[in-house]
Design goal:
Shape: globular
Distance between the termini: 47 Å
Helix content: 25-40%
Number of helices: 9
Bound molecules: NADP nicotinamide-adenine-dinucleotide phosphate
Strand content: 15-25%
Number of strands: 12
């Protein structure tokens, strides 16, 4: 009877109520015929929550804000890419009881970008210096591109740039920067902050391709401005879907229904925003 109950997977974050991961993962498990349930958990105490993972035999965890770095010391192991990025966005709980951390944000980002843009030998300006920016720098380099950092707070941007050995430019100097692609990893423009953009409109034309990691709304102010300036634009939806799909591959060893995952999230976003 040990395995009669459905396998439980969970999202750890604070807040979690807005997340579309439960919708996406549950749709995928159902389509794959896997008897599993994915639940959002509002975590108040991370250490206790991880003990709960072991105690309740939760098979896998997605990790979101604000725990992506804080969770690392509690894990038995993390993979090489999370080590270099310094952040984990998923955990697998294997049959021996070990908790192993991975980062699939970088994979989601490059796969989402690569669907329309070839990264190899291209310059990519990454706006922001937080966890997603770190995943972006790592991913762009993995795919043979040349990343550079642009950030509002120079000290933070410089620290990240030095750590990865890439150039840094303060946001205030963005008018002097050119690159093949710009990726926004700041939260500026995310619902409900829909009217704001992290870049002045007149600077966007310097970047023929513009990707926003934000997927709610699907078309941020940054992407609207970029389209008006004649740039090619990519929203954060494919990144979101690919980072989630990779989580399912690691947890189950099976191929997830990526297109279905995209469709359910897209439908929910359109319903919510009229995008
Ligand atoms: P984070 O660690 O808090 O970093 C945020 C960065 O944004 C910081 O460098 C910060 O600059 C900058 N920033 C914040 N407000 C700003 C403003 N008003 N003007 C200019 N810069 C500003 O955040 P994160 O975890 O990397 O997440 C960032 C975004 O990525 C979120 O919107 C998240 O939803 C999105 N994301 C999407 C996916 C996906 O699957 N599509 C996956 C992961 C994350 P300072 O250093 O100056 O403070």
């Amino acid at each position: 009877m040990k395995n009669a109950a459905p396998a439980i997977f969970a999202l750890f974050g604070n807040p979690v109520s807005h997340s579309l991961s439960p919708l996406m993962h549950n749709a995928a498990f159902q389509k794959m015929g896997i008897d599993a349930s994915y639940v959002p958990l509002l975590v108040e105490n991370l250490r206790d929550a991880l003990q709960g993972v072991r105690a309740c035999n939760i098979r896998g965890i997605s990790v979101t804000i604000p725990f992506k770095t804080a969770v690392i010391p509690y894990l038995d192991e993390i993979d090489a890419s999370s080590q270099e990025i310094g952040a984990v966005n998923m955990i697998s709980h294997d049959d021996t009881g070990r908790l192993k951390g991975y980062n699939t944000d970088w994979i989601g980002l490059v796969r989402g970008l690569e669907e329309s843009f070839e990264i190899k030998k291209k310059t990519v300006a990454i706006l922001g210096a937080g966890g997603t920016a770190r995943a972006a720098v790592f991913g762009i380099r993995q795919r043979g591109g040349t990343p550079m950092i642009i950030n509002r707070t120079p000290e933070r941007g410089e620290r990240l740039a030095q750590e990865f050995g890439v150039p840094f430019y303060p946001l205030a100097q963005v008018k002097g920067i050119k690159a093949d692609c710009l990726i926004n990893t700041t939260p500026v423009g995310m619902t409900p902050d829909k009217k704001n953009s992290p870049l002045p409109r007149e600077s966007i034309g310097r970047f023929p391709w513009v990707m926003d990691c934000i997927y709610n709304p699907l078309k941020t102010q940054l992407l609207k401005d970029a389209e008006e300036a004649g740039c090619f634009v990519i929203n954060g939806l494919r990144m979101f879907v690919h980072q989630g799909a990779e989580q399912i591959r690691i947890w189950t060893g099976k191929e997830p229904p990526v297109e279905l995952m995209r469709e359910v999230v897209l439908a929910r976003l359109k319903e919510a925003n009229g995008d």
